[in-house]
């Protein structure tokens, strides 16, 4: 777009605004430096670190049991899956085979976490495009999942339910019934999401063709989770590097080829249906057995490098442990999905309006502590 | 009821009993202004409460229920809090314009209230160019918003103010033209006259198809005029923080806030007067009791206010370019065609009269 | 979908990968010991050449850089690249290290994988490893005035670090 008006001494110039660290649309303490020409975004530069706790450094001094608890504080909306990632890595290093019961329970809670995370995302996503009511609909259903977690794990957000070698304790006797009740409830409520937001003409106008991301760019930027799958990039870790009980269930990897914000939106909505289907397949078939394998009080991993990826609600979380054979990791790296997804924000937002930036940022589903580990 | 409902005349006569005619006129004006100010400040607060209750109803919540019975005093308490709050401001703000802006907004919206006929003869100021006066006054408010956004010396506020300028200037056209469509039937701009005409049937019935189109355009444009969702580009909290009033606090913020709600009432009240027969009761059922007109007027207005709240709590926000596309490419051409259609209908005498 | 492409290029075992890659550059060290993936250690000056070949070669086609880790070996500083091919689904690990602790420098792989932009800035921020040809190499998490590189093993901060 021509920035100057021809044959006139009026001229326009670009200017900066600071979006964040306290801003309603940045969901936490993300700071974006925007270069704007009128309403049109010229450049988006994220400035991070407002909530960085250097978890990777802390991990180098902590034992493996302690590390699990730190991971809750990364992507707090998929805390169970984060815990699981570390436990799986440690179990892989120790060549520990956990009982089937543990695998199934981990999978069920992991999928409940995914639904909880997606409902919250759906709520705040609606708020970002100005539909304030979605927030309460999303939270209504998320509360029920939190209640299930509270009963079994004792916590609603930072669950700490996994330990290397299994689970901290068995599930609550009500767990199966309440989960089934929830699935029955949510099956009637999820269509409401479509009625309220998905079908809305204004919403579709806001989302379609906005924040375009091609498949090649998605792979190159390391996009994962619904962001990658909205661009037609098959990146579901549950399918490609199956873990826990995911190899025992049938589910579809949701792929959309449009690559716009609406595709990413649809992927998440349909993933909730898939998650419900996974839970339904497992909930009646939780095998009997122990919920943990005995490990040493002090876990020492053998010398070597171990890598495990899992699919959190936001995408691929990788845990890289470099062990020298002591009770602490020599180096531990979390490859967080949000970090890579954030790096493509500039790419998809440039050329759009401020409203488009907010809408496409909402479909990236960023959780800032996940980026600022 | 022996007291005449023509309040201006009543008060002037009362006052002229003990002062000169000129002083009595001025005294009457001041008294009426104070009465209106008091009534609508409180009414505005209750509109806020209504909005919150309606929002809660839409959002599976209870809403304010702690202060007073059923939370009825909640907004009073909020107003008290806002009055006692510190007035902050930016150091580099243009102080004079910054302080002036809220008054522009609140005064222009209160001024518009003076011309409404709440019931027969109950009208502070029966001017013969009523509709024109309303349109003119209601567009003054945007100056306050522009001033506020500019003088705050804040980029978010400035973007919000510029959006507001663009939006109000555009949608003013649709508001004006859709009301003009209806004036073709009434043949008068005077609000009392417009209501009088509707004794033969509300204008939305008299004008049938073009009137319904005009009403829909009016409601869309009216919602945009008041800067409410889905046209709240000006505040767009997820984009601009709080938009043009980012830097305002305390009572100055409250003026902006109150003005928004009074404007909503005004937009609904204009629609009531022009499309739905103003204070006239349906089928003339309470024609013999003129003061009940107030009930009908407020009732109809509140239904329309509820409609606007319904918009707000269900729709996502448009983007700024989509907003302008909607106005200039769809509403405006449709409106111009609609005027021609209405003119034809009036000319060929196809209106429905009872 | 291009079927011929799928047919010609498929999952390669670690052995096949090793045979292929060693034919490109002679001085590479391969190991599978203490890791589930094939590890390649490359000299800093050959890093960029190897990386672009790993990406562009149709048989390897490592188009997904899923993890980029900085590591401090006490004496050396290194970077570990985890690569995956989204078409063939094989995984490889490339390692590079340098003994220069004052001014450690590697070539940037930003031009090959865009995700490396942020990941390299993170490594620069915490390890002080510089990347040549990086478009925007400045601190990402920490402030510009921050002294030292916190994830190095010799980093000392008596106030903020709790050492057990």
Automatic annotation (TrEMBL), chain B:
Compartments it resides in: Cell membrane; Membrane
The keyword Amino-acid biosynthesis belongs to this UniProt entry's keyword annotation: no
GO biological process, one term: aerobic respiration
Pfam families recorded: NADHdh
Keyword set, alphabetical order: Cell membrane, Membrane, NAD, Quinone, Translocase, Transmembrane, Transmembrane helix, Ubiquinone
An annotated Gene Ontology molecular function: NADH dehydrogenase activity
Keyword Translocase listed: yes
Any one Gene Ontology cellular component term annotated for this protein: plasma membrane
Main location: membrane
EC number(s) recorded for this UniProt protein: 7.1.1.-
Segments crossing the lipid bilayer: 26-49, 96-117, 129-150, 171-189, 201-221, 253-277, 289-310, 330-350
Catalytic activity: a quinone + NADH + 5 H(+)(in) = a quinol + NAD(+) + 4 H(+)(out)
Membrane topology: Multi-pass membrane protein
First-tier enzyme category under EC: translocase
Function recorded in the entry: NDH-1 shuttles electrons from NADH, via FMN and iron-sulfur (Fe-S) centers, to quinones in the respiratory chain. The immediate electron acceptor for the enzyme in this species is believed to be ubiquinone. Couples the redox reaction to proton translocation (for every two electrons transferred, four hydrogen ions are translocated across the cytoplasmic membrane), and thus conserves the redox energy in a proton gradient. This subunit may bind ubiquinone.
Family matches, as HAMAP family: NDH1_NuoH
Self-association state and partner proteins as the record states: NDH-1 is composed of 14 different subunits. Subunits NuoA, H, J, K, L, M, N constitute the membrane sector of the complex.
PANTHER family: NADH DEHYDROGENASE SUBUNIT 1 (PTHR11432), NADH-UBIQUINONE OXIDOREDUCTASE CHAIN 1 (PTHR11432:SF3)
Family as reported in the entry's similarity comment: Belongs to the complex I subunit 1 family.
Protein name, UniProt field: NADH-quinone oxidoreductase subunit H
């Amino acid at each position: 777009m021509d920035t100057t008006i021809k044959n006139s001494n009026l001229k326009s110039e670009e200017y900066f605004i600071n979006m964040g660290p306290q801003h309603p649309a940045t969901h936490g303490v993300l700071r974006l430096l925007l270069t704007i020409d009128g309403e049109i975004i010229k450049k988006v530069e994220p400035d991070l670190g407002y909530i960085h706790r250097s978890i990777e450094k802390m991990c180098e001094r902590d034992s493996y049991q302690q590390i699990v608890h730190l991971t809750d504080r990364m992507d707090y909306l998929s805390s169970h899956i984060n815990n699981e990632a570390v436990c799986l890595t440690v179990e892989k290093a120790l060549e520990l085979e956990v009982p089937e019961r543990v695998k199934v329970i981990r999978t069920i809670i992991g999928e409940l976490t995914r639904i909880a995370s997606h409902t919250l995302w759906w709520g705040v996503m609606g708020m970002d495009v100005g539909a304030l009511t979605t927030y309460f609909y999303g939270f209504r259903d998320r509360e029920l999942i939190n209640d299930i977690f509270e009963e079994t794990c004792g916590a609603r957000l930072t669950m700490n339910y996994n330990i290397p070698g299994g689970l901290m304790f068995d599930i609550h006797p009500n767990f199966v019934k309440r989960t089934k009740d929830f699935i029955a409830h949510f099956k009637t409520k999820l269509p409401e999401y479509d009625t309220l937001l998905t079908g809305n003409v204004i919403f579709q106008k806001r989302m379609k063709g906005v924040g375009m991301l091609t498949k090649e760019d998605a792979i190159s930027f390391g996009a994962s989770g619904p962001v990658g799958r909205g661009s037609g990039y098959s990146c579901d870790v549950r399918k490609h590097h199956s873990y826990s009980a995911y190899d025992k269930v049938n589910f579809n990897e949701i792929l959309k080829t449009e690559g716009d914000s609406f595709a990413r939106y649809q992927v998440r909505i349909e993933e909730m249906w898939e998650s419900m289907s996974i839970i339904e397949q497992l909930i009646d078939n939780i095998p009997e057995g122990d919920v943990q394998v005995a490990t040493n009080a002090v876990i020492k991993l053998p010398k070597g490098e171990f890598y495990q990826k899992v699919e959190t609600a936001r995408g691929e979380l990788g845990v890289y442990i470099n062990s020298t054979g002591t009770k602490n990791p020599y180096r531990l790296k979390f490859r967080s999905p949000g970090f890579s997804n954030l790096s493509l924000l500039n790419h998809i937002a440039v050329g759009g309006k401020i409203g488009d930036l907010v809408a496409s940022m909402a479909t990236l589903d960023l959780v800032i502590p996940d980026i600022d580990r | 009821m022996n007291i005449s409902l023509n309040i201006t005349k009543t008060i002037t006569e009362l006052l002229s009993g003990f002062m000169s005619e000129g002083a009595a006129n001025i005294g009457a004006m001041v008294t009426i202004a104070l009465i209106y100010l008091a009534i609508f400040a409180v009414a505005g607060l209750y509109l806020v409460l209504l909005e919150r209750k309606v929002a809660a109803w839409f959002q599976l919540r209870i809403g304010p229920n702690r202060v007073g019975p059923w939370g009825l005093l909640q907004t009073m308490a909020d107003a008290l809090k806002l009055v006692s709050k510190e007035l902050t401001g930016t150091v580099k703000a243009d102080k004079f314009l910054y302080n002036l802006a809220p008054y522009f907004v609140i005064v222009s919206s209160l001024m518009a209230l003076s011309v409404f006929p709440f019931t027969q003869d109950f009208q502070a100021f029966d001017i013969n160019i009523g509709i024109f006066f309303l349109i003119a006054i209601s567009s003054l408010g945007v100056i306050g918003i522009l001033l506020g956004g500019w003088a705050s010396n804040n980029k978010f506020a400035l973007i919000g103010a510029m959006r507001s300028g663009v939006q109000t200037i555009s949608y003013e056209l649709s508001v004006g033209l859709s009301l003009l469509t209806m004036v073709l039937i009434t043949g008068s701009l005077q609000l009392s006259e417009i209501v009088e005409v509707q004794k033969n049937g509300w204008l939305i019935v008299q004008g049938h198809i073009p009137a319904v189109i005009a009403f829909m355009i009016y409601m869309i444009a009216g919602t945009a005029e008041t800067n409410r969702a889905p046209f709240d580009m000006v505040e767009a909290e997820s984009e601009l923080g709080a938009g043009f009033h980012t830097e305002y606090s305390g009572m100055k913020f409250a003026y902006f806030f109150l003005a928004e709600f009074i404007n909503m009432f005004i937009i609904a009240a204009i629609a009531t007067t022009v499309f739905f027969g103003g204070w006239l009761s349906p089928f003339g059922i309470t024609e013999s009791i003129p003061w009940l007109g107030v009930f009908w007027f407020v009732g109809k207005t509140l239904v329309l206010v509820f409609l606007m709240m319904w918009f707000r709590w269900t729709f996502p926000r448009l983007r700024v370019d989509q907003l302008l596309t909607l106005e200039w490419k769809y509403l405006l051409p449709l409106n111009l065609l609609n005027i021609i259609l209405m003119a034809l209908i009036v000319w060929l005498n196809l209106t429905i009269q009872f | 979908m291009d079927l011929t492409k799928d047919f010609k290029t498929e999952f390669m075992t670690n052995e096949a990968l090793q045979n292929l890659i060693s034919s490109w550059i002679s001085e590479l060290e391969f190991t599978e010991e203490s890791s589930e993936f094939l590890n390649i250690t490359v000299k800093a000056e050959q890093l960029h050449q190897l990386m672009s070949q790993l990406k562009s070669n149709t048989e390897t086609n490592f188009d997904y850089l899923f993890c980029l880790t900085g590591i401090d070996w006490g004496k050396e500083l290194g970077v570990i690249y985890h690569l995956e091919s989204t078409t063939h689904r094989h995984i490889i690990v490339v390692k590079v290290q340098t003994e220069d602790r004052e001014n450690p420098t590697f070539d940037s792989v930003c031009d090959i994988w865009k995700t490396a932009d942020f990941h390299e800035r993170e490594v620069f921020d915490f390890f002080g490893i510089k990347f040549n040809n990086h478009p925007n190499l400045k601190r990402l998490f920490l402030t510009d005035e921050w002294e030292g590189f916190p994830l190095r093993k010799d980093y000392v901060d008596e106030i903020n670090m709790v050492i057990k």
